[in-house]
Amino acid sequence: MNSFLLIDKPAGWSSFDVIRQLRRILGIKKIGHAGTLDPFATGLLICATGQYTRLLKYAEAQSKTYTASLLLGKKSSTGDPEGEIIASSEISYNSQDLSTLPEKILALKSLRVPEYSAVKINGKRAYKLAREGKILEMPIRPVTIHDFRISQSQDSAVLDYTVKVSKGTYIRALSEYIAEALGCVGMTIALRREAIGDIGVDSAVNFDDLETKWRSGICPAKKILKLDSILLNNEQTTKIIHGRGISVGDNFAESIELAMYDEQDRLLGIGCVETGMIRPKQVFDPGESL
Fold first, then answer.
1. 64-194: CATH homologous superfamily?
2. Could you give the residue numbers annotated as active site?
3. Does position 94 have pLDDT exceeding 60, yes or no?
């Protein structure tokens, strides 16, 4: 079975815990997800089954939208509630600091990857090295902040914000940067992924309903694949299924990737345009897709 499933992950479950549940419910071993959510975080998790696991990179490449709560004045070893408090500071920001904050955040071009992350350092996961007490020099990654909005909660020590970021942006690192910009330390105490690209968590199936209502979380491939597409007739479909190229003349730019669909609007695969031909890169059995 090839499918994309949208799931609203609850707090207390790791992303892989969700995969384990899906494997049990669906009886399928080949399941993956796009964009890991930490156990304390909630929100949209895009999962794929069967051959569609090969397409998760297209979901991972899209922007992510989060709502987060930042606790100011305390810093944990992990940047979230799961770690030990390792530093504290006074909180003394003012309304002027808040008004200039969005401009600073939108101008960000890079952030250091947290020590407690799945990034590999010399072939080993960083969080494993951190738990062993190793001193790590974490890489700095380019980031793009597409949108940033703050909302001050009643407690001045907690700052709530909504942010839309590029692939690979760690919100825990962003929260620490925000705290530093306000002259103190801080940590993320709540995090929810609201959207991946233009797919919102409101389209996802609630995790508690997964056992009986998993089909309500099925998402069409076209919503996941933000690629130019082409609809193939029966003759063209036969050629593609057998790994042969088809002519498209000069209708598409050279080297562009295309999502190919049959006359029933079922995904056939991903192709690449080369000298006026679409060459199939990945081909799927449309009869196996949901």
1. Pseudouridine synthase (3.30.2350.10)
2. 38
3. yes
